[in-house]
């Protein structure tokens, strides 16, 4: 490994301190500065007797030669302009989810990073948990077979956000996981969404989104701010096995069930006229892997450095962020159309279709 990369964290609000802590602890990074319009808040995050600089001007940060990259943890509406400034200054960028406020802005960010030869990464944190990495590898090895359905539930008695609905608050986690674990990423032909606002909060507080998958399968995402019980669970049914991920069960976060339904079509001498379906239930073993407990953000900052050093796309690159954002926009459009299916826009730039 070469010298550590210099990093500045931009934004010292809710998520910034977590980024500061992990970049500071990583041997691959040298945390040089924390930038925030509120100097007192930034100094509090940095802590007393720290060698980390506090800045209130992004222009000053981007002009520094000892900073190779910036981590943006500011409101979504600022992500695109800040990232574009960073790329123009020759800095790599990791940005908090969602990648931008609109897919048009996200596409501009991807294009700018490509043209500058710089890394653009989205902090889809759950994709760096040991459980989700294991799920990705399990599906990639074909252990589950073809994915027939995904049921994802993320509900709790949560804080009602002032500027976004429950889909934009909670669903990015589930959508980013689906984009990471599904072969080919999250590229549904259409999305249907329904929701309700029983609290009269002026925004959807409980919602359901459904999208078709390849091989005739389907994915269903349930998000809810109103549940007194907190559930973070995903069931992934395959043609061979079914995987259950329970993020709130540290003793059994992942379980693979060799259980399911086998449907065999039995032909006869006159198969075109008469066919009988034989249904059998498969009751096999349950496998519970031993997973290492490791903070996801620690793996994320390591992946960011590796992507820069190896000059490759990161595990959750700008294109992944754009795919997730396109589905979120389709969910909003479907809600506005009272549940009518909406096709996510597959934004492309250049003639070679490099965003596909």
From TrEMBL:
Residues 139-336 form the Gfo/Idh/MocA-like oxidoreductase C-terminal domain. It comes from the Bacteria. Residues 7-124 form the Gfo/Idh/MocA-like oxidoreductase N-terminal domain. Transmembrane segments: none annotated. InterPro entries: Gfo/Idh/MocA-like_OxRdtase_C, Gfo/Idh/MocA-like_OxRdtase_N, Gfo/Idh/MocA_Oxidoreductases, NAD(P)-bd_dom_sf. SUPFAM superfamilies: Glyceraldehyde-3-phosphate dehydrogenase-like, C-terminal domain, NAD(P)-binding Rossmann-fold domains. Pfam families: GFO_IDH_MocA, GFO_IDH_MocA_C. Belongs to the Gfo/Idh/MocA family. This is Dehydrogenase.
């Amino acid at each position: 490994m070469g010298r550590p990369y210099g990093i500045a964290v931009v934004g010292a609000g809710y998520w910034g301190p977590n980024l500061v802590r992990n970049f500071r602890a990583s041997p691959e990074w040298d945390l040089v500065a924390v930038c925030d319009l509120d100097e007192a808040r930034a100094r509090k995050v940095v802590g007393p007797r720290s060698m980390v600089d506090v800045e209130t001007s992004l222009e000053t940060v981007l002009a520094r030669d000892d900073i190779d990259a910036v981590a943006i943890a500011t409101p979504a509406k600022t992500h695109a302009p800040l990232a574009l400034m960073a790329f123009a200054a020759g800095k790599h960028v990791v940005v908090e989810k969602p990648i931008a406020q609109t897919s048009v802005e996200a596409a501009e960010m991807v294009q700018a990073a490509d043209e500058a030869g710089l890394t653009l990464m989205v902090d889809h944190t759950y994709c760096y948990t040991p459980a989700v990495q294991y799920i990705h590898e399990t599906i990639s090895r074909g252990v589950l077979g073809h994915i027939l359905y995904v049921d994802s539930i993320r509900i709790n008695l949560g804080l009602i956000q002032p500027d976004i609905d429950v889909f934009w608050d909670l669903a990015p986690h589930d959508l980013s996981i689906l984009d990471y674990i599904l072969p080919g990423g999250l590229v549904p032909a259409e999305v249907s969404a329904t929701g309700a606002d029983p609290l009269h909060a002026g925004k959807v507080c409980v919602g359901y989104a459904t999208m078709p998958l390849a091989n005739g399968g389907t994915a269903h995402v349930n998000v809810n701010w109103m549940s007194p019980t907190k559930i973070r669970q995903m069931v992934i049914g395959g043609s061979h096995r079914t995987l259950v991920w329970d993020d709130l069960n540290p003793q059994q976060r992942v379980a693979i069930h060799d259980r399911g339904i086998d449907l065999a079509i039995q032909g006869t001498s006159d198969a075109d006229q008469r066919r009988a379906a034989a249904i059998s239930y498969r009751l096999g073993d349950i496998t519970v892997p031993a997973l290492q407990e490791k903070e996801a953000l620690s793996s994320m900052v390591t992946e960011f450095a590796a992507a820069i050093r190896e000059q490759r796309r990161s595990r959750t690159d700008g294109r992944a962020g754009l795919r997730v954002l396109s589905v979120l926009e389709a969910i909003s459009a479907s809600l506005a159309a009272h549940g009518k299916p909406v096709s996510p826009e597959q934004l492309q730039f250049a003639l070679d279709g490099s965003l596909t």
